[in-house]
Write a structure and sequence with these properties.
By secondary structure, this protein is mostly helical. It is built from 16 helices and 3 strands. The protein folds into 3 domains: 42 residues; 95 residues, Up-down Bundle (Receptor-associated Protein); 233 residues, Receptor-associated Protein (Up-down Bundle). 29% of the residues are buried.
């Protein structure tokens, strides 16, 4: 029992991030210098500075900001850029610790700078890169860590890091294309709703005051619009409450309920045009991720386990997990994929050819490139298709309100 407790305490100490110290000092010429450096304690930092020819005057722990962590959060783009920088430096022969020190020095995001310094401190303390990354599972997912582990074991870490950087860049480019396809129509629809709300709350009531003076019955369409306006003016707070509650409920169930997420992803895949793009994007991610992990030397079953979460869709995630289970009991990958009923014939055939020829990763790269190009083409086509549709929708919404407001005026003019 005592041994277990000691081991647990040791593991807990290892899991703690390396503290960052702020130092000031003078070099051999008497020039004042200052900086930040990770270390276990101030004495070790002073010893390291003296070794570098700097006489320390102040060494103290870096203070925490008053209101939480300073700086923006660490994004996927930050990790992608970091991966490319690290890959480039290691390919040039720069040691990993020096590479991390240089990258940290050029970081503008304080959170990411602290993270890189922590990684450097852990590696200097004897941890492997995989062990250092494993302490930050949010920023470095299982796929990233498994690839690094495979690269370290095979002694080809620089090549694997280059592969990871290329993979991350391709995936981020794909995500950007999908966001572009969805962002434009969403923003225009939001603008249409905002304009309609402004007209109903501020403009229509002004016309209603004028109509009261006419003393005549209003056309049915005008009465309908005026009724909506009255409801908006009287119960706008209720509408905001309903919309806000719906959004919060949606986000809650999306994060907490796997069944709801699965249902939502399945419905998205059935939407015309958008569903096709999401299908092709999931296939591109699946093919590229499996190709990268398999080429890096990760065992196939373990690679499929990492790939499942990288597809970006719970429907495909479940399908890949089923493929993993079938492959683990001896089925060929292409046969396991066919059993799911989700993968296109072309993908299954390319996988079968790759397995037979012993070039599965090469075939999967070709599949990924094909579907990434398909996504690019589909997004461009969608943008061209959506623009006129949105213009028509905006015209119908705004035009209907204008017609409803001017119908009584036209009716009175005809009577006169």
């Amino acid at each position: 029992m005592a041994v277990t407790r000691t081991a647990a305490k040791t593991a807990a100490r290892r899991a703690e991030p390396t503290p960052i110290f702020v130092w000031e000092g003078t070099d051999k010429r008497g020039v004042k210098m200052k900086g930040e450096q990770p270390g276990k304690n101030a004495n070790l930092i002073r010893a390291e500075l003296r070794r570098q020819g700097i006489t320390p005057t102040v060494v103290k722990p870096k203070g925490k900001p008053l209101f939480g962590s300073a700086g923006r959060s660490i994004s996927a783009k930050d990790i992608t850029f970091f991966s490319r920088q690290l890959a480039t430096m290691m390919k040039s022969g720069v040691p990993i610790v020096s590479s991390l020190e240089i990258i940290a020095g050029g970081q503008k995001n304080p959170k990411f700078k602290d993270l890189i310094n922590t990684l450097r401190g852990d590696i200097e303390g004897g941890s492997s890169i995989y062990e250092a990354l494993s302490k930050h599972p949010v920023q470095f997912d299982e796929l990233y860590r498994n690839l690094v582990k495979a690269g370290e074991s095979a002694g080809v870490l620089d090549t694997v890091l280059d592969t990871i950087a290329t993979y991350k860049e391709n995936i981020e480019a794909l995500k950007g294309k999908i966001k572009k396809a969805l962002f434009y129509p969403a923003m225009v629809i939001a603008a249409a709703i905002l304009v309609s709300a402004i007209l109903l709350i501020f403009v229509v009531p002004q016309f209603e005051e004028v109509f009261r003076g006419f003393g005549a019955d209003l056309p049915a369409f005008t009465q309908f619009i005026v009724g909506i306006s009255r409801f908006m003016v009287g119960y706008w707070w209720l509408l905001l409450l309903i919309v806000g509650g719906t959004i919060v409920t949606f986000i809650f169930f999306k994060k907490r309920s796997q069944r709801f997420s699965h249902f939502l992803d399945r419905m998205i895949l059935r939407i015309p045009v958008i569903g096709k793009i999401m299908h092709e994007a999931a296939l591109a991610r699946f093919a590229r991720t499996l190709a990268v992990t398999f080429a890096a030397g990760v065992p196939l079953v373990e690679a499929l386990d990492s790939v499942a979460g990288a597809t970006g869709n719970t429907v495909y995630e479940s399908a890949v997990k089923r493929v993993r289970d079938d492959v683990s009991v001896g089925y060929p990958v292409n046969m396991a994929m066919k059993q799911t009923g989700l993968f296109p014939h072309m993908v299954i055939q390319m996988t079968a050819i790759g397995e037979e020829a012993g070039a599965l990763d090469a075939m999967l790269y070709k599949v990924a490139e094909f579907y990434e190009q398909e996504v690019n083409n589909a997004v461009d086509a969608l943008a061209s298709l959506i623009e006129p549709i949105i213009v028509v929708i905006l015209g119908v919404i705004v035009g209907s309100m204008v017609i409803a407001m001017y119908l009584p005026i036209f009716k009175l003019a005809a009577v006169v």
